[in-house]
Write a structure and sequence with these properties.
Layout lengths: L13 H29 L1 H29 L7 H12 L1 H10 L7 H16 L12 H12 L23 H6 L17 H6 L11 H13 L6 H21 L3 H10 L3 H8 L10 H21 L6 H18 L8 H30 L12 H4 L14 E9 L11 E9 L5 E8 L5 H20 L2 H5 L16 H14 L3 E10 L9 E10 L2 E9 L6 H17 L4 H5 L16 H15 L2
Antiparallel strand pairs: 1-2, 2-3, 4-5, 5-6
Helix pairs in contact: 1-2, 1-4, 1-9, 2-3, 2-4, 2-5, 4-5, 4-6, 5-6, 6-14, 9-12, 10-11, 10-12, 10-13, 10-15, 13-14, 13-15
Length: about 600
C-alpha cells in the first residue's frame, strides 16, 4: 500500500466541496430521521423534541452566519443578499448544527442548544476565519463546551424517566458505566435494560443520534465508497479501539467479543469516527496523517475510558487528536509514498503504545480489584457469610443503578432562594446492598452553607451507604439521623435524603424466614432468612441471611449451585411465583443432596411474599 498526498476537500474547489458536504448532509439527515422515529415510539413529546432540537441549532447557526456576514460586508461585495447566501453556502453551518444537535440527549434544554451553537459557530469557526480556517471541529468543541458547563442539564428523558423503556431508573449506558469507576473494565450489559442488539441498532436512549452504531457504520462505508471521507481515519480509529479492547479483555479474563462490541457500540464512538474525526478541515490532509490521527484518537479513547473513568471518552479523544493535526501535516509533508517503512513504523509503534499502556493499566486495575464471583455477601451475618459464595475474588460492579432527584428551595421567595435539584445514583450489588451513592446537581447556594455541607458530605454519603434499602426508606424527613444531618443546612440535608428515597421509591422490600432440620438428633433447627426486593411486580433480587446449610460438603454443594437458584427466582413475577403449586423439585431451584436447604429457601421466599 502507498501513501499519496492529496489536498483536503476544502482545497479542491467549491464544487467538489459542495458535493462532499451534500452527501454528508444526506447521511446526517438519515441519522436524524432514525432518531425522530425512535423517539416517537416513546411519545409524541419525545418525537417533537427530536425535531425541534435540530431546528433550533440550525436557526441559531444561520443567525450567526447572518451576523458575521453583516459585519464582514463591504460595498465592493455587491448586493448584501447575494453575499449573505454565498456566505451561508460556503461555511456549511447547517452541517455543524446537525452534528452538534445529534450529540445531545433528548432532555437538553433549548437554551443550552442555542448557547452551544453560538459557541461552536462564532468562537470555534468564525473567530479563526470561517470554514477552511478553523483549527478545531466546531460541533465537537460546542459539545465539549455544553458538557463542561451544563452537564447536569444533559439528561436522556423529558420529565419522568420511567416512560423511557431503555433507561434503568433514568441512567443511560454511559452514566451507568461511569458510576462503576475502574470496575467497568470487567463490566457487561448485565443490569441494564439494553442487550447487544439494541446497543448496536440504537433502540435505547442516549444522545439523539449517537446510539445508531450499525446504521452509522453502514453510512460511513457508503461515504467512504463515494470518497466523501477518507476510509483510513475511521478504519484505523475503530481498529485501534477494537484491538486494544481485545487485549484488555484477554488480560482481564472476560468475554473478548462482548467487550469489544461494547466498546465499539457504546455511546458516540461510531458517530465520532464517521462524522467528527473525519472533518476535512481539522484533520490532517495526507493519507498517512489520516491513518495516524485515527491511531492517536483510538489510543486516547481507550485510555480516557479505562483510566479517566469516562466511558464516553470519544469527544475528548478527538479534540486531543485535532491538536496534533498541524504537527502531523508538518511531519508528513512531501511525497508520502517515500520512506514507507518509517511511516508504517510510526503507526505500528503508536499502536503498540496503545496496546501496552492500556493493557497494562487494565491488568493492574483488574488485579487490584480482585478475582471472580457473582454473589456479594457483605450484608450477611458472620454466621452465613462462609456458607454463601464469596464476592471477594471479583471486582464488585453494580448489578443495578437506580437514579433519583429532588428539588427544593430554602424559602418561599425563589428569586432570593433559587430552587436547587439534588440528583443521585444509587449503585446496588446482586443482593441489593448499596455499593455506593454518587451525587450530582446542586447541593447548596454557596458561602458558609456550602463550606459546612462540603465538610460533612462525604461522611453523610458513607453513612447512607451502610444502611439497607429498607432502613433508608423508613427514615422520616422530619427526623433525619444525626449522622446524615448538618445543622443550619437543613434543606440540603433533607433534599439529599429525599433524592435517595426517590431513587429507591420503586423498590419494595419483603422479609421472610423458614425453619427446618434434616437431622434433629445431630443438629439444631436451622432458620434461613430472606430479603426479597421487588420492582414493578418482578423479583429483582434476593438476599439470604441466617443459617443456610450445616457446613462441610453441604456448603460446598450449595455454594456451587446457588447462582443457578438465584437466577431461577430473580426475574420471576410475584404472581407467577405464588402460583407455583408447591416447591418445584423438578426445577433449578432444587439442589440434589440438599433437599431441606432448597425447600427452606423456597419456604422463606413464600413467607416473605405472602405477609
Amino acid at each position: 500500500m502507498k501513501f499519496i498526498v492529496t489536498p483536503g476537500p476544502y482545497q479542491r474547489g467549491k464544487s467538489k466541496t459542495g458535493i462532499i458536504m451534500r452527501d454528508l448532509m444526506i447521511a446526517l439527515l438519515i441519522v436524524w430521521a432514525a432518531a425522530i422515529a425512535y423517539n416517537f415510539t416513546i411519545g409524541v413529546d419525545y418525537g417533537v423534541k427530536a425535531i425541534l432540537m435540530v431546528l433550533v441549532a440550525s436557526v441559531t447557526t444561520i443567525l450567526c452566519d447572518v451576523l458575521v456576514a453583516a459585519i464582514r460586508f463591504k460595498k465592493e461585495n455587491g448586493k448584501f443578499g447575494q453575499f449573505l447566501l454565498i456566505s451561508i453556502r460556503d461555511n456549511f453551518s447547517l452541517i455543524t448544527a446537525l452534528i452538534f444537535a445529534l450529540t445531545l440527549p433528548i432532555g437538553t434544554p433549548y437554551y443550552v442548544i442555542i448557547l452551544g451553537s453560538i459557541f461552536g459557530t462564532l468562537l470555534v469557526k468564525y473567530a479563526f476565519g470561517g470554514f477552511g480556517h478553523n483549527l478545531f471541529n466546531p460541533a465537537l468543541f460546542a459539545r465539549i463546551f455544553v458538557f463542561l458547563t451544563f452537564a447536569s442539564s444533559l439528561v436522556p428523558h423529558l420529565g419522568d424517566a420511567s416512560v423511557v423503556p431503555s433507561l434503568t431508573a433514568g441512567a443511560t449506558i454511559t452514566s451507568a458505566y461511569s458510576a462503576l469507576g475502574f470496575k467497568w473494565l470487567t463490566a457487561s450489559l448485565a443490569g441494564l435494560n439494553v442487550n447487544m442488539s439494541q446497543l448496536w441498532l440504537g433502540f435505547y436512549s442516549g444522545a439523539l443520534g449517537e446510539p445508531f452504531a450499525l446504521l452509522i457504520l453502514l453510512l460511513g462505508i457508503g461515504l467512504a465508497a463515494r470518497k466523501v471521507l477518507n476510509w483510513r481515519t475511521p478504519a484505523f480509529y475503530i481498529g485501534t479501539v477494537a484491538v486494544t479492547a481485545l487485549i484488555i479483555a484477554l488480560l482481564a479474563g472476560i468475554n473478548p467479543l462482548d467487550y469489544v462490541l461494547i466498546h465499539l457500540g457504546m455511546g458516540g464512538l461510531m458517530f465520532g469516527a464517521i462524522f467528527m474525526l473525519t472533518d476535512p478541515v481539522s484533520s490532517p490532509t495526507s493519507p498517512f496523517g489520516k491513518a495516524f490521527i485515527g491511531v492517536i484518537a483510538g489510543l486516547m479513547t481507550v485510555l480516557i475510558r479505562i483510566q479517566g473513568k469516562m466511558p464516553e471518552g470519544v469527544m475528548f479523544a478527538i479534540a486531543i487528536a485535532n491538536v496534533f493535526s498541524p504537527l502531523i501535516d508538518r511531519f508528513a509533508s512531501g511525497m508520502t509514498n517515500q520512506k514507507l517503512t518509517q511511516k508504517w513504523l510510526v503507526i505500528g509503534s503508536l499502536l503498540f503504545v496503545s496496546l501496552s499502556l492500556n493493557g497494562s493499566i487494565a491488568l493492574v486495575r483488574v488485579r487490584g480489584l480482585g478475582g471472580s464471583s457473582s454473589i456479594d455477601t457483605s450484608s450477611l451475618s458472620s454466621e452465613t457469610s462462609s456458607e454463601i459464595p464469596s464476592s471477594s475474588e471479583e471486582p464488585i460492579i453494580p448489578f443495578r443503578v437506580l437514579s433519583g432527584s429532588y428539588a427544593s428551595s430554602a424559602c418561599a421567595d425563589e428569586e432570593y432562594c433559587p430552587v436547587q435539584t439534588q440528583m443521585v445514583n444509587v449503585n446496588l450489588d446482586e443482593a441489593f446492598s448499596i455499593l455506593s451513592i454518587e451525587l450530582s446537581g446542586t447541593n447548596t447556594t454557596g458561602g458558609s452553607y456550602r463550606t459546612k455541607w462540603n465538610a460533612q458530605e462525604t461522611a453523610i454519603v458513607d453513612y447512607y451507604e451502610t444502611l439497607s434499602i429498607a432502613e433508608i426508606k423508613a427514615i422520616d424527613q422530619n427526623a433525619i439521623p444525626a449522622e446524615a444531618f448538618v445543622a443550619t443546612v437543613t434543606v440540603t440535608s433533607t433534599r439529599l435524603l429525599l433524592a435517595i428515597q426517590d431513587a429507591l421509591a420503586d423498590v419494595e422490600v419483603y422479609t421472610g424466614s423458614a425453619t427446618s432440620n434434616a437431622e434433629p438428633e445431630h443438629y439444631d433447627d436451622q432458620t434461613t432468612m430472606v430479603t426479597v426486593y421487588v420492582i414493578d411486580g418482578v423479583i429483582a433480587s434476593i438476599a439470604l441471611g441466617g443459617t443456610v446449610t450445616t457446613g462441610g460438603i453441604y456448603a460446598t454443594i450449595w455454594n456451587t449451585n446457588y447462582p443457578t437458584i438465584y437466577e431461577y427466582y430473580v426475574g420471576m413475577t410475584v404472581v407467577d411465583f405464588l402460583a407455583l403449586p408447591a416447591f418445584p423439585t423438578d426445577s433449578d431451584a432444587f439442589v440434589a443432596g440438599l433437599t431441606y436447604t432448597s425447600q427452606r429457601v423456597y419456604d422463606a421466599i413464600v413467607d416473605a411474599l405472602t405477609l
